[in-house]
Structures are given as C-alpha cells and as structure tokens.
Amino acid sequence: MNKLSKYPILLFLYCAAALFTLYYCKNDKQQPVYEDLGSVKNRIIKTNTDFEKQIHELKTLVSKNTDEKLLQKKFHDIRKTYKKMEWAVEYFLPHSARLINGPALPEIEMDEHTEIEPEGLQVLEEMLYPYDKDNKEEVIRMLSKLINKSNTIKTNFQVITISKDQVFDALRQEAFRISSLGISGFDTPVSGTFLQEMPFSLEGIKETLQQISTQRSKDKALKNILAEINSATEVLKKNTDKNIFDYVNFIPDHLNKITALMLDFKKQEKIPDVDVTTALHKNAATFFSKNAFNPNAFTPGKEYSYSEEKAALGHQLFNDNLLSDNNNRSCATCHIPEKAFTDGLAKAISLKNSELARNTPSLNYAGYQHGQFWDMRKDDLEGQSSDVISNKEEMHGDLNVILNKINQDKNYQAAFKKIYHSQKTEVWQLQNVLASYIRSLAKFNSGFDEYMRGNKAAMTESQKRGFNLFVGKAQCAICHFIPLFNGTVPPDFKKTEQEILGVATNADNKMFDHDPGRGKFHETVPSLQHSFKTPTLRNIHKTAPYMHNGGYKTLREVMNFYNKGGGKAFGFKVENQTLSDAPLQLTDKETDDIIDFMKALNDQ
Questions:
Q1: 188: Cβ contacts below 8 Å, ≥ 6 apart
Q2: Bridge partner list, 481
Q3: Residue 188 to residues 126, 191, 194, 322: CA-CA distances in angstroms?
Q4: Are 190 and 581 in contact, with CB atoms under 8 Å apart?
Q5: What's the pLDDT at 114?
Q6: Which of 190, 230, 484, 543 is the most exposed place for a label (fewest CB within 10 A)?
Q7: Backbone phi and psi for residue 216, each to the nearest 5 degrees, phi listed first
Q8: Helices (DSSP H) in 28-163: which residue ranges?
Q9: Rounded distance, CA 403 to CA 385, Å?
Q10: Residue 353: phi, psi to the nearest 5?
C-alpha cells in the first residue's frame, strides 16, 4: 500500500498542491508558480529540531537543580535558535508564535471576556532572571508546553505548501520586525539580550534569501543584501550594551538599507505581491518612506477606502456645527488643529460646560490603531465618529436628523452623490467621510522621519541622544512602537495594545485614579481593569496635559512617573500593572534629552 494512502488528508494536500502548480504552469506563464519550496521547509524543520533538543536539555538541567548562570545561558541559546526561524513561525503560524514568544501577559478572548494563561519564552525569561528553585516545577511545566509548540511547528511545516512570494513576504516582515520590535527589546524585557539575538534573526533572513534566489539576483541585489546583513551583524557584535548602543544611526545606516535592498531582490527575482491588504504598502522601501502606510488596512471594508475627495468633504463637515443638536458645536470645537487636534484642557468639556471624565485625545494618527477612545470601545474611526455625535454630553446629535439636513443641502447632496453614487446620503457614508478626514491627518513629516530618510541634519545632538535613551535605557519603544510610536504592534499592525500604568489622579502621585478604562466593558477580565490604549507620541509636545485624565501637566511630570516605576512605585496596589515597576534610573539630563527627542516627533 502507498504510504500516502494511509493518510487521506496528506494525500489530498499533496494532490491539490500538484494540481494548483500544474494549472498555473499550463495556463498563464505570467502567474507565479506555486511550487512547494521543500528545501526552505527542510531548513525550518531542522532548526526546529535543534530548538526542541535544546528545550529538552534545559528541562533536564532544571530538574537537576543546575546553577542559575548555566540555565540562563542555555535559555539564551534556545532563544537564538528560535530567532533563526522566527520569520517563518510568525508568518505561517501566528497563533503558535504568540504562544511561543508573545508577551508574558494573558491572551484575552474579548468576545468571551476570558483570559488564557500566558506561556512561552517570555514567561520563562521572567522565571529565569532571576531563577528561584522553588519555581522548578512551574519552569518544567512551561518547558513542556514549549516542546508541544515545537511539535506543532514540525507537524505543520511537514504538510503545508509554501510559495516563493509567501516566503519573501515573510522575510520582509521579519526585517521590519527587527527594525521595530527586535531593536527595542520587546521580547526580552527582563534579560535585555536582544542585541545579541538580532544577528540570528538576520541570519534566518540571509540563509533563506540564498535558498530562494536564482542567478537573476545573485550577483546584484542578493550580493548587496548579504553584504549589508554582514555589516549590520558586525556592528551588533561589537556593542551588545543596550544602554549605549547607537540606535539612531543603526536604523538608517543598516536596517533601512536591508529593507530597501529587499525590494530590489524582489524586482530582480520577479516575485509577485501576496494579494492581501497590509498596513505597510508592498512598495515601501522602509518604515519611513513617504506614503509607506496604507490607511485602508484600518477601515471596516473596501467601500470605506480612503480618498482625498472623502477627506475634503469630511474636513468640511468636521468644521460644521450641523453635527450637533443645537448647531452650536463642531468636531473642531474640541479638536483644535494647532493643538494636534486636542483642546489643551485636562478634561473635555460637555455641552453644558461641565467637566467630563477624560482628556480629549489627539486625532493625529488615530487612523493607525485598532480601538478608538481611551477605553478602545470602538474598533475604528467610523464607529468613533457616530459615538461622539450621538453622545448627549458631547454633541447630542441625532444621525437621522443630521442626514435630513445634509440631504436638503444641495452642495452636500451633490458632494456625497459624486463620491458614493447614491441618491441619498446614508449614515455609513457620513461616518466614512469624517473618518477619512481624520485619516488624512497623519503627515509623517517630522524631523525624526527626515532623519530616518537620510537627512542627518534633521535632529539635534540632544534629540539623537534622546532617541537612543528612548529605545535603550528608558525602554519606551517596547510600548510606543517604532515607527507609529503608538500601541499598534508592528510589523503587521493588526493589533493595538492597552497598558496598565497605575496612573494617579494628578502628578502629585498620591491618589490612584480608579477609572476602570477598558475594564468597564470586560468586568470579569482582571488584566483589563484600569487599562487604557497606548496613544501615539507623535506631536506629543502639542497635546498637554497628559494621560487619560489629563492629570499630568508636563512631559517632565510624565517622565518622572515612568522613571520611578509607575503606580506600584508610588505605593498603589496595582496587581495587574503591565508597566515594569523597576526604576529606570534616568538622570535629569537624560530625561531632558528624551523630552527633546519627542519634539522631533512634531509634524512640520
């Protein structure tokens, strides 16, 4: 009996792949050939075999009560091995990747209002740095779960078909992952060994590009990429101290060059785009290229896609009082352009001139997040606009009444008809033009952006020192992710994170602010109580006062709060605080430099 006939599912998969390949070869020479890249899969499986073997070795050492230093060394080896195949696991098995190397925080099932126990390398890191022998059984349990995930990797890559366009797309995502999460130490917050690990991530890219290359690129783009990866690796090997590494030059001088050269490789190899809408345009050479980001990746659907015509109409309505109940307030009343679309007040003011519960958030870059308002109660800007308009304390408008006004206005009626080709304006269209205007507010033209594009005169020496501290010693970039500087997680930007900081009512830091934040809508989920969306730091100098309650008047007050270690450091009982309570030990001069760097995030 044929071996495959024993496994009907495997037989089906192999036959389907063969037929798919045959169809494209025969019918359209311009289409990509979806051959199964067996050699690439074999390398992934081999690396995973090493990964599993190392986990077993560490498990044995733990059971024998081995010295802490040796356990940490073996754990570090496991992480380096994983980094070689991270590009593949993250792309093809994202759920498994989250459980292998995701944050040491519960995974939340929002619809079910439940939490899933965290596991994986980051959980183990917290247990091993430092190592308490009383936790031996728990460490062994976590290592056993990690072995199970390794088996999942093996099982999946034995049967799935991966094509050249997918592999390239995955490698490109990994290059951007290195440029954001990797270089900030996002997944090594305790050990801080990320600079030692980055060469192994780059090695995974390098070896796989060599596998999928042909003669078309070997003496051109591939040769240049390999040289640049080797150059970056040499820099990383010379300095592994995260507190003094030169991040501000390493990104444009090395990482940006690698991602740009990968586009040359793609062109020379004639690799087509994977047909999926992504936040980063497929032709973006770097994170900092002009028009690198695609706002349509954050819309509810294709009919909501961004256009300049929609944004222009939205701008007009944004400044029109007809959206409010008594025609006495517009969106621009509380979102002032000169203040980065905030109002400059500690808390927003209601229609009756009473103080509301929270600070008015900036609308700049609000389009690049999944979750609007401080408590993230709306998924997108379309939902956000109708929520504000309908809120009796904010605008107290009636969407149906507003639509009647618009449909009776010849100019508005003509403008909506031209865009949507409908006889009467509908609610979703009103929401969409307002949302489109807000999406247009992301300019990406700050001094920092210019510096990353090669203009070395665009930032001062103080700002450059500040960025190095921001990424390194201060660890700001593990929550405010480069390049958006908000909580939307690169490189796929499919999720926006919330954090629990233990914020006080004001900068005296004497009384805890009991606002439940996102927890109001998930009362049975402990890890969401007092949690708030991580906002962008772009234009932060224009948006004072700060935090969800506007209780911190200056950036120095904010930095003091972080420097001490958040709410826990001030004696608040915040058991679920996600911000590390370890003091940053920043000097006054270092704090000044970080604040000065944040000025470089102001749009021009």
A1: 79, 122, 125, 194, 197
A2: 486
A3: 9, 6, 6, 51
A4: no
A5: 81
A6: 230
A7: -60, -35
A8: 38-63, 68-92, 94-101, 121-128, 136-159
A9: 14
A10: 65, 30
Q: How far is CA 99 from the centre of its chain?
A: 17
Tokens of 429: 């269209």
**pLDDT value for 113:** 78
Q: How far is CA 356 from CA 264, 319, 352, 543, in A?
A: 53, 22, 10, 17
Average predicted confidence (pLDDT) for the chain: 93
Q: Are 494 and 370 in contact (CB under 8 A)?
A: yes
Whether the ω angle into residue 199 lies within 30 degrees of 0, i.e. cis, is no
**Side-chain half-sphere of 304: how many Cα atoms within 13 Å?**
23
Q: Smallest Cα–Cα separation from 494: which of 283, 289, 284, 297?
A: 297
User: Residue 23: its pLDDT value, please?
Assistant: 39
Backbone angles phi, psi at 108, to 5 degrees: -105, 125
Q: Is residue 72 a contact partner of residue 159, using CB atoms and an 8 Å limit?
A: no
Instruction: List the one residue out of 321, 317, 342, 339 whose CA is nearest residue 330.
Output: 321
Predicted TM-score (pTM) of the model is 0.92
Residue from 309, 327, 296, 303 nearest 416 by CA: 309
Which ranges of 409-510 would DSSP assign to H, the alpha helix?
A: 410-420, 427-439, 447-452, 461-471
CA distance linking residue 475 with residue 565, whole number of Å = 12
The per-residue pLDDT for range 221-254, each reduced to its tens digit, is 999 999 999 999 999 999 999 999 999 999 999 9
The answer to whether 260 and 212 have CB atoms below 8 angstroms apart is: no
Work out the burial of residue 10: count CB atoms within 10 Å of its CB; fewer than 13 is exposed, 13-18 middle, 19 or more buried: middle
- For residues 405-429, average pLDDT: 95
Q: Which two tokens stand for residue 158?
A: 């034995």
Helix segments in 64-105, DSSP class H: 68-92, 94-101
Question: What backbone torsions phi and psi does residue 167 show, to the nearest 5 degrees?
Answer: -60, -45
In b/e form, how buried is each residue of 451-488, taking b as 16+ CB within 10 angstroms?
Answer: bbbeeeebbeebbbbbbbbbbbbbbbbbbbbbbbbbbb
Classify residue 535 by burial, with Cβ atoms within 10 Å: 0-12, 13-18, 19+: buried
- Token representation of residue 208: 């796989």
pLDDT digits (tens, 9 = 90+) for 2-60: 333 333 444 444 444 444 444 334 443 344 444 568 899 999 999 999 999 999 999 99
CB 53 within 8 A of CB 154: no
Six-digit token pair at 407? 């449909």
